[in-house]
């Protein structure tokens, strides 16, 4: 007979999910009500307001898609890309490649701007491609590339797109709540994120937001949106304003309780304070890891504080390290993806996993494990260096 599942206790410091606050878990355990219940509709309105706060936008179409971040990505592309549309897709990691596939699946033409993994998207390359084509419809890029730990200049890329008459689609799965993100100020037209990174809610929900310019393109489509579930013109009947809602789908009621609570916690902290907290703890983690003799693979000016890409020391079995960290310390860190597989660890400092306790536990566990495996590192100095960074 199969018994109830009881997950082990973990400290989650990989690329996501991050640790979920007891407040969020408790919120998800509250009684389920109907997805058209007036009380639930009132909470839906609050989630919309809280997402507008987190994204720094007044966009009317700001809502959570009832599916993970990949569905948020698809929601943006399926509504905005029509057959024959030319879309500049920037790829400097795994997730730009997924953007390319979305463009092509919906009949668009993907014009690629490729940069070395671990570097930011090149503005000059994007500008050069826009100069070559006078009929670009969209510019798509990843703000915070989860596979590499690099930040691209979203503000400058969006300004460039406006200069050339293009709309923008921005992947903010890892950036929302962790680094500066200004949807309205930067002129982002369509953006998607996830709940399991810096918002520290369980995975399975994808916040999205569409500007009025993006919605106008949706309204003027010559072809029908090829996804019924993700068609924004349909789902707005359910997530639109007012008390009267048209049934579209059964929303994940308890998961949305959790998202609501995580956004309330972000509001209590303050969005700018959350950005500062991620940078603050990143500096201590950096000090400890570098004192140990490890080095980051991303240059400091474009390095993400919430997703730290650290080179595996020569001769070290990186998978064995991760296995021992999980087995002995209950600590999860991430492996490299794509061309970085086996070469880096991805250490997350996201949301509820971005605390002094997490930093010190990670440094201590990683040092002990590397020493046991005979790695050539500096012993006994990492914790002191991290503590000194906090003292500063």
TrEMBL record:
One Pfam family hit: Aminotran_5
Modification N6-(pyridoxal phosphate)lysine, positions: 197
Cofactor: pyridoxal 5'-phosphate
Record bears the keyword Transferase: yes
SUPFAM superfamilies assigned: PLP-dependent transferases
Key words, A-Z: Aminotransferase, Pyridoxal phosphate, Transferase
Binding locations of substrate: 346
MF terms (GO), sorted A to Z: alanine-glyoxylate transaminase activity; L-serine-pyruvate transaminase activity
Leader sequence segment: none
PROSITE patterns found in the cross-reference section: AA_TRANSFER_CLASS_5
Boundaries of every Aminotransferase class V domain copy: 44-338
Glycoprotein keyword on record: no
One biological process term in Gene Ontology: glycine biosynthetic process, by transamination of glyoxylate
Family: Belongs to the class-V pyridoxal-phosphate-dependent aminotransferase family.
PANTHER family: ALANINE--GLYOXYLATE AMINOTRANSFERASE, AMINOTRANSFERASE CLASS V
Name assigned to this protein: Alanine-glyoxylate aminotransferase apoenzyme
């Amino acid at each position: 007979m199969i018994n109830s599942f009881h997950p082990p206790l973990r400290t989650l410091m990989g690329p996501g999910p991050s640790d979920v606050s007891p407040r969020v878990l408790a919120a998800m355990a509250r009684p389920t009500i109907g997805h058209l219940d007036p009380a639930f509709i009132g909470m839906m309105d609050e989630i919309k307001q809280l997402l507008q706060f987190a994204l720094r936008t007044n966009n009317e179409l700001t809502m959570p898609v009832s599916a993970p971040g990949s569905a948020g990505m698809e929601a943006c592309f399926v509504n905005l890309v029509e057959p024959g549309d030319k879309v500049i897709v920037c790829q400097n990691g795994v997730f730009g490649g997924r953007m390319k596939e979305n463009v092509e699946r919906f009949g668009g033409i993907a014009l690629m701007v490729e940069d070395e993994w671990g570097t930011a998207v090149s503005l000059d390359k994007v500008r050069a491609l826009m100069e070559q084509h006078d009929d670009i419809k969209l510019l798509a890029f990843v703000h915070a590339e989860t596979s590499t730990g690099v930040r691209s200049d979203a503000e400058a890329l969006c300004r460039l797109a406006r200069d050339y008459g293009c709309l923008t689609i921005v992947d903010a799965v890892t950036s929302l709540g962790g680094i500066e993100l200004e949807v309205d100020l930067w002129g982002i037209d369509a953006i998607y994120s996830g709940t399991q990174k810096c918002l520290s809610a369980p995975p399975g929900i994808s916040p999205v937001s569409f500007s009025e310019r993006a919605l106008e393109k949706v309204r003027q489509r010559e072809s029908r949106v090829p996804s019924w579930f993700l068609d924004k013109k349909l789902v707005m009947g359910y997530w639109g304003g007012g008390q009267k809602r048209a049934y579209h789908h059964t929303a994940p009621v308890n998961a949305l309780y959790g998202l609501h609570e995580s956004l309330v916690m972000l509001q209590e902290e303050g969005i700018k304070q959350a950005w500062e907290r991620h940078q603050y703890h990143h500096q201590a983690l950096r000090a400890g890891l570098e004192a140990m003799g490890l080095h980051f693979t991303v240059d400091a000016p474009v390095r993400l504080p919430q997703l730290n890409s650290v080179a595996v020391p020569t001769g070290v079995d990186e998978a064995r390290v991760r296995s021992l960290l999980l087995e002995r310390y209950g600590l999860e860190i991430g492996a490299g993806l794509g061309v970085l597989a086996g070469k880096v660890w991805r250490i997350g400092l996201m949301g509820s996993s971005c605390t002094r306790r997490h930093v010190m536990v990670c440094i201590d566990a990683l040092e002990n494990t590397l020493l046991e495996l005979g790695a050539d590192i500096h012993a006994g100095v990492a914790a002191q260096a991290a503590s000194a960074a906090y003292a500063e």
